[in-house]
């Protein structure tokens, strides 16, 4: 792993928001500053990084604010809400990361790129919304919102009810050339929130659609396309587990491609949380048999890159 230097990082929700803390921009900035200390450390260890991040809570709140303000100003289309979420999350990461890099006397530019990601118009995900966005509600509140506003809402991993939207597969990163051109000189924050989902028309134009792409799958697309050595997926837990939250839970240091696929078949990973991460890891390693994907926590990221922490997914 010593020469593996090119890393695409996918940042999980806890890198942007602390559970239970107010969902304000100010609170997010405080969390992002801490997150960026870990990211700066990775950069200072000599890794070349690009950063993807989630946006479920943020895009949902922007949408809610926009819909609530309808009486005074026209509501924003969903794809525009996605672009807005990329903008303000990227802005926070730019501030936090630049500060953390400066503290380490490392002068490297940081930019965020509003990034479009092409999805297929006929993706079956449009018929089956699964991606939770925005705040949590009680079951009673959710039922009322479903009846009054026509929202699709589902229970989210025992944490409460949330609005859900379609989450189609990322097929192509529209701004990929720019990411590649910037790579050698700049830390690029891209495919934020999985990218703004767009459909590509035959005449080469793009049209935004109402959906939220999974950021782990978009980060995987990016990692393949830029020829990254490592796809580093950062979340709350240090390791992926089998029999998660059961008395016989076993944390995994390593999974081969076959083992990972078998655990997926056994239903070991919760859909909408750990499953897309393992699926992204599988895709990356299947396409790049000599490379690796790592799933770990932000706090263990540096150790994981050195092979001393996290769950490593490799071909064999
Ligand atoms: N098999 C598993 N192994 C480890 N964690 C799991 C597993 N299944 C579900 N989880 C949960 O999934 C969470 C990661 O999903 P989530 O919080 O939705 O992701 P994100 O970090 O992208 O916001 C972990 O923090 C853990 O609580
Ligand atoms: N776009 C996306 O995957 O966001 P979350 O990580 O917040 O679900």
Automatic annotation (TrEMBL):
This is Carbamate kinase. It comes from Acidaminobacter hydrogenoformans DSM 2784. Pfam families: AA_kinase (PF00696). GO terms for molecular function: carbamate kinase activity. GO terms for cellular component: cytosol. SUPFAM superfamilies: Carbamate kinase-like (SSF53633). Transmembrane segments: none annotated. It catalyses: hydrogencarbonate + NH4(+) + ATP = carbamoyl phosphate + ADP + H2O + H(+). Belongs to the carbamate kinase family. Pathway: Metabolic intermediate metabolism; carbamoyl phosphate degradation; CO(2) and NH(3) from carbamoyl phosphate: step 1/1. Residues 6-288 form the Aspartate/glutamate/uridylate kinase domain. Keywords: Arginine metabolism, Kinase, Transferase.
């Amino acid at each position: 792993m010593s020469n593996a230097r090119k890393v695409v990082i996918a940042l999980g929700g806890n890198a942007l928001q602390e559970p239970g803390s107010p969902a304000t921009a100010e609170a997010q900035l405080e969390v992002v500053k801490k997150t960026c200390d870990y990211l700066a450390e990775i950069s200072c260890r000599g890794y070349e990084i690009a950063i993807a991040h989630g946006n479920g809570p943020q895009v949902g709140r922007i949408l809610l604010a926009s819909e609530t303000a309808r009486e005074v100003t026209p509501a924003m289309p969903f794809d525009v809400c996605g672009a807005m979420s990329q903008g303000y999350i990227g802005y926070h990461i730019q501030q936090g990361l630049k500060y953390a890099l400066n503290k380490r006397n490392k002068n490297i530019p940081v930019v965020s790129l509003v990034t479009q990601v092409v999805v297929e118009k006929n993706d079956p995900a449009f018929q089956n919304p699964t991606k939770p966005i925005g705040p949590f509600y009680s079951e009673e509140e959710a039922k009322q919102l479903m009846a009054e506003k026509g929202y699709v809402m589902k229970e989210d991993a025992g944490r409460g009810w949330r609005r859900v939207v379609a989450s189609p597969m990322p097929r192509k990163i529209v701004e990929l050339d720019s990411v590649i051109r910037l790579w050698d000189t700049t830390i690029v924050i891209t495919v934020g929130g999985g990218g703004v989902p767009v459909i590509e028309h035959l005449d080469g134009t793009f049209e935004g659609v109402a959906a939220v792409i999974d950021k782990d799958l978009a980060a995987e697309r990016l990692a393949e396309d830029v020829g990254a050595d490592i796809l580093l997926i950062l979340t709350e837990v240090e390791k992926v587990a089998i029999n998660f939250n059961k008395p016989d839970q076993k944390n995994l240091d390593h999974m081969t491609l076959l083992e990972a696929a078998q655990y997926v078949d056994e239903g070991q990973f919760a859909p909408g949380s750990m499953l897309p991460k393992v699926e992204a890891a599988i895709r990356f390693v299947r396409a790049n048999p000599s490379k690796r994907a790592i799933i770990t926590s932000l706090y263990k990221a540096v150790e994981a890159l050195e092979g001393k922490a996290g769950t490593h997914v490799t071909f064999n």
